[in-house]
Amino acid sequence: MNSSSGKTYMSTSNSSAGWKAGDAAADQFPVGLRVLVVDDDPTCLMILEKMLRTCLYEVTKCNRAETALSMLRENKSGFDVVISDVHMPDMDGFKLLEHIGLEMDLPVIMMSADDGKHVVMKGVTHGACDYLIKPVRIEALKNIWQHVVRKRKNEWKDFEQSGSVEEGDRQLKQSEEADYSSSANEGNWKSSKRRKDDEDETDERDDTSSLKKPRVVWSVELHQQFVAAVNQLGIDKAVPKKILELMNVPGLTRENVASHLQKYRLYLRRLSGVSQHPSSLNNSFMSPQEATFGPLSSLNGLDLQTLAATGQLPAQSLVTLQAAGLGRPTGKSGIPMPLVDQRNIFSFENPKLRFGDGQQHVNNNKQMNLLHGIPTTMEPKQLAGLHHGAQSMGNMNMQVASHGSQSSQNNPLLMQMAQPQVRGQMLNDTSLGHPPRLLSPMGQPILSNGIAANVSTRNGIQENIRAPSYNPVSQTSSMLNFPMNHAPELPGNSFPLGSTPGISSLTPKVAFQEDVNSDIKGTVGFLPSYDIFNDLNQHKPQNWELQNVGMTFDASQHSNSLQGNLNHAHSVLVQQGFPSGQVNGQNRSATVVSKAMFSSGDSTGHVNAQNGNQQLNSLLVDGTVRVKSETPTNLYPDDFGQEDLMSALLKQQDAIAPAEHEFDFDGYSLDNIPV
Amino acid sequence: MARRMLDASNQGLLLQFWLATSSLSKGKTRMDRNRLQHQAASMRRSLFDQGYLDEPFIQLEELQDDASPNFVQEIVTLFYTDSARLIQNIEHALNSRPIDFDKLDDYMHQFKGSSSSIRAKKVTNECTVFREYCSAENAEGCMRSFQQVKQDYAILRRKLEVYLQMVRQAAVSQKA
């Protein structure tokens, strides 16, 4: 398809002369437009395919939404436009529409035999670029290229305007973890891929970006700023113009903010709306990004709040966690949400923790403390399952955060995330501190914290994880799993863990994992860390068994110093792709997480992150979140900043609640999330 | 009644068609060939005139080309399989007690989508009527409407088959 930036489009559908944007290999736009058609009706599908072929488009047909999504995820830039039926047995067409919009940001055209106003309106609100009534005429299909051009044009405009932002982000991303950034950029899809993939993707993405899609890269940092601005204004009053002013980012346009806000709102809405769907774990995870900003939603909200309250989860972390947890409205986020989510988060976290902590083992004590804080909060939350996870997370966080300051931050995050899970066990100490990030998406983040705590002992994490408190861990793992289904790579890549600031980074990742499966795309941010988990957990959203999480903790264990680990963890967790900006900020609060979520492009901690990731990965591989579910007491009472995290998360949650998470993490790079 | 007459006329056409075919086998003459095509065209026209097929059906025919010479045939076959399944489901849902109107509506929506894709106007319209009864949860109305749908569908099928056969024959004879 024509990659040209499409400045000058020719409108002939079949014209070969088309339009040469000065490109020698100019495409004969729209000839060769790559269309993906999704419809369960075979008759209609065949007719559409034939018609599209007649228009000289390249057609791929699919009769199931899930298949289509995985196809899209596998090859993010392999299609230019998607045509989908509204009425499908396995997945609602509008849901698919949302996923695609968030993860890949491709133009989607809806179609149906139903021409009722209500349905068409739904298409509009969900972001469809067009709505066709069946029977579809070939004339209607001839012009679908206009949507592709239009979108590119808008992106290009944004790109140009925010070139600096993007560039920077892009750099970060590339260096860091391609996963994250790529996901962010390309709809978070990339995050699911492992780092190596990420790199490839990043490159590809960059090329693609430069060629075709000049998108604003919403790095984690940027996103954080965005979220902060939104929170400041109040989600209801947040208008693009004011947000833009508050953010004060050069090169960012009102349009960028507007579209981002739209996504964010969808994301939030989804988080709050879907928090009770166990199956929707994926959904919640879907948006790693959401995790960051998403209202950690019920699940998270509850836990996070507690965590926040108990632990000092930095508000940000809390938010992140929430976001993470909430990630997808699908209810995963809800704290009580299906534990699965939580678990995912936790599992996610755990792995994360591992990374950071693993390295450092640091202070088991500390770690425990971290969890301490969390579990307490968590308990109340229904995260029964989370316990374990949370614990693990907590431990993880702890570990990660054990370093102390960092932990606090992390923990909060983790705690939050792990909240559901950690609930009781692990998080006793809210000091999870470190892993906090992990949780976010899943709400499990807390787990990381808790896990972190336990993680310190990492070695024993495995066991811990199994411990009741480790539920979170499993969750995380599930979370991780999902983030990208594929993923083991989960977005985790982008864990901005960088600065252990808060477990948040970890959590986010975790959360994503879960979504990954479903379509974490959005949450890419968080997932990064989950990638690791994913691998481990591989879609075991329900694996509370810390097994999944295992990695998180271990990871944390490894690191000797929490601080250091945190960084790692941050990086690792946060992003599997996170640009580790976070790593630096040890005490980064949830922001780290959020950042991570956004874009693994966090540069700072990249290195660490990378390492961390590695470790994390390895840890995760263990499959068991070793998050030692050591009793909550493990949580270090260190000032992990859990409270901060929690508060951050909580705050965010509140603020974000209404927003729907429509966070298309294109180009989100996990920059250092301002803690 | 009108339908029967139409059928009769169709059958008449069919008869002619077969006669022509047989004569063709004996000795293909251009005239025969033309006649076949002519008849195919008539048949087709009657299908349209009687409202079984939409003018848009031509769009489907136009899609057929060298790359997919049997496109219409394939599409129609697909339609048969899919719609048969849907009809069965609807039947089953209508006969179960209590009637699940949501599911019914669901099936009918799918069926409507299929038949509209194939540009079967009459059947599609009847589907809409059915869905109205369905949303009003009028079981009686649904049953009646469904009977009509089934009838229209059966006729459509028959005609389509004949028509396609004619087309095939004409194509074959052309090659000869």
Task: Itemize the secondary structure elements and their pairings.
The complex is a heterodimer of chains A (675) and B (176).
Chain A: E1 34-38, H1 42-54, E2 58-62, H2 65-74, E3 81-85, H3 93-103, E4 108-112, H4 117-125, E5 130-133, H5 138-142, H6 145-161, H7 163-175, H8 178-185, H9 189-192, H10 195-211, H11 220-233, H12 240-247, H13 254-274, H14 281-286, H15 288-293, H16 297-310, E6 313-314, H17 315-326, H18 339-357, H19 364-378, H20 386-402, H21 405-422, H22 439-442, H23 445-457, H24 461-466, H25 471-481, H26 506-518, H27 527-537, H28 547-558, H29 562-574, H30 581-584, H31 590-598, H32 606-622, H33 642-656
Parallel strand pairs in A: 1-2, 1-3, 3-4, 4-5
Helix pairs in contact in A: 2-3, 7-8, 7-10, 8-10, 11-12, 11-31, 11-33, 12-13, 16-17, 16-19, 16-21, 16-33, 17-21, 17-26, 17-31, 17-33, 18-20, 18-21, 18-23, 18-25, 18-26, 18-27, 18-28, 18-29, 18-32, 19-20, 19-21, 19-23, 20-21, 20-23, 20-25, 20-28, 20-29, 21-23, 21-25, 21-26, 21-29, 21-33, 23-25, 23-26, ...
Chain B: H1 2-26, H2 30-49, H3 57-63, H4 71-95, H5 101-117, H6 121-135, H7 139-175
Helix pairs in contact in B: 1-2, 1-7, 2-7, 4-5, 4-7, 5-6, 6-7
What does this structure look like?
The complex is a heterodimer of chains A (675) and B (176). Chain A is mainly α. Chain A has helices spanning 42-54, 65-74, 93-103, 117-125, 138-142, 145-161, 163-175, 178-185, 189-192, 195-211, 220-233, 240-247, 254-274, 281-286, 288-293, 297-310, 315-326, 339-357, 364-378, 386-402, 405-422, 439-442, 445-457, 461-466, 471-481, 506-518, 527-537, 547-558, 562-574, 581-584, 590-598, 606-622, 642-656; strands spanning 34-38, 58-62, 81-85, 108-112, 130-133, 313-314. In chain A, strand 4, helix 4 and strand 5 form a beta-alpha-beta unit. In chain A, helix 20 (386-402) runs parallel beside helix 28 (547-558) and helix 27 crosses helix 28 (547-558). Chain B has helices at residues 2-26, 30-49, 57-63, 71-95, 101-117, 121-135, 139-175. Chain B starts with a helix and ends with a helix. Chain A binds chain B through residues 40-44, 46-47, 50-51, 53-54, 85, 87, 112-114, 134-138, and chain B through 56, 59-60, 63, 65, 67-68, 71, 74-75, 78-79, 81-82, 106, 109-110, 112-114, 116-119.
